[in-house]
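Notebook B, p. 112. Complex prediction, attempt 2.
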Amino acid sequence: MSRNTADRKAPLVELPIATSDGIFLAHYSERGLAELDFPNTDGLIAPAGHGNAEPRKPAHPEHATDPQRIPTQFLRWHRTTTEALKRVLAGRAVKALPPLDWTGKTEFQQSVWREMLKLGPGQTKSYGEVAKAIGKPKAVRAVGGACGANPIPVVVPCHRILAAHQKIGGFSSGLDRKRDLLARERINL
DNA sequence: GACAGATGAAGGA
DNA sequence: TCCTTCATCTGTC
């Protein structure tokens, strides 16, 4: 077991993404997209991957990092992230992703998330199938844990991972949101 | 090291 | 079917 959360670097830039679902908040480090926070139904932003964290106010443009001082590389990544997010929310295939910063995450988690990235719109896998795909067929519960720790939901499509027999399983940001995302991809449970 | 967890499978009613 | 129990593996504290 590798445990290297200590060298996790704090994101350098936070940028909001306005969608029909609300304002998502993307966190970028010098390595790429590090986190994506869901908007809450009440307008607050729910941090991804840590369900018991306190929701917080969305960063208004005037409070977010000053656009004038953001390196163009971050702006390029943000354009790619915005496009990818909007495509997923529309149930369409993602054309391109920015580099993803999984620094500090374990090898196991990264292999689970890489497996999720292989799934296109309308495609699903069970936790057991993901466990098999990464060569650890008995690590089904651990796959669930890795899904819950996913810092970049929607873009890394943890909502496409179902429990056995097409049951919905769980979702750190709420089962309703998972059902909604699946419905947009015409996935019937 | 102990414990919890977004599972899965098997067995019994 | 539905429910309960248990095996299994990994992450977190």
